[in-house]
Structure prediction request, 348 residues.
Amino acid sequence: MKERLLGKTPEELKQIALSAGLPAFAGKQIARWLYVNRVRTISEMTNLSKAGREALAAIAEVGMLEPLDVQVSADGTKKYLFPVRCPVGAGHDVEESCVEAVMIPEADRKTLCVSSQAGCKMGCKFCMTGRQGFHGNLGAADILSQFFAIDEAGELTNTVFMGMGEPLDNWEEVKRVITVLTADWGLAWSPKRITLSTIGVIPTLRRFLDECKCHLAVSLHNPFPEERLEMMPVQKAWTAAEVVRLLKTYDFTGQRRVSFEYTVFDGWNNTPRHADALVRLLRGLECRINLIRFHRIPDFPYGPASARAMEEFRDMLSEGGVTATIRASRGEDIFAACGLLAGKHNKG
Ligand code: SF4
Prediction:
């Protein structure tokens, strides 16, 4: 299989260039073609010699994916479907699958919600991605294609790693993408424009906190261990209390922010008892809670809370001293809202 250039640093590109007989400085030129000009093919890298381009194309490719399909919501949200080929097992086998990226337009920004894995191992009961099982990790080129191959590629202002998969279960590739997004030779975004969402994979969470400055969102959903375990098997390996303890050793009073995602299942996790426990759990940590309306999925015992019940729960948290906001739901009509991404190709 050819080496995919997208996602590589200038230093790595230099090594690939050298092995194709190109001069060392070609590494920087290739990085510019990839991340500034965003070319799809090596033949477009016209400041490399023709022979050099041919030698490079013999061992490498850009690796950009094109979307198979796009759906547009009544609220302007767009869901792009990408075909991916994930390596499986120790050999050279690949599994074909699809992932989705969601572009959410707002008055002053355009946010891309990206997928980091095809499917997911984590098995959260309320999540359509979790229900389809795990098909493989995306490479950095697969993730960057979600940024570069969509109609709004040049207009994106923010990104959230909140699509399909658990990004901290694929940290090496996700870190590569964050490096491309934030490096001067890449897109030169401030890390403040990037939020990574996790259910709390502690070993790589620690690395994320130490190795980059992006914002963090933790999927919490219930403060009680035995209740959280009912929905989120991860609680067995790494408890929410351990995650919060770890976060309390970092500083979130400056530029970097931490928030907690809390999908409200009516009657299951929005009682005064839950609000009290959340306030106690998060006391001493500078953070906010985002309350998310649940989108009903098949064969699931709980339903969404009413707007009124959401507001009441928000007020209980605010009275306890925890800032809570109700997140507006986007793209529900095209199954692009939180927890609904399933990577299904609906046409043809
Ligand atoms: Fe995976 Fe996130 Fe879905 Fe849980 S909620 S199954 S971590 S994609």
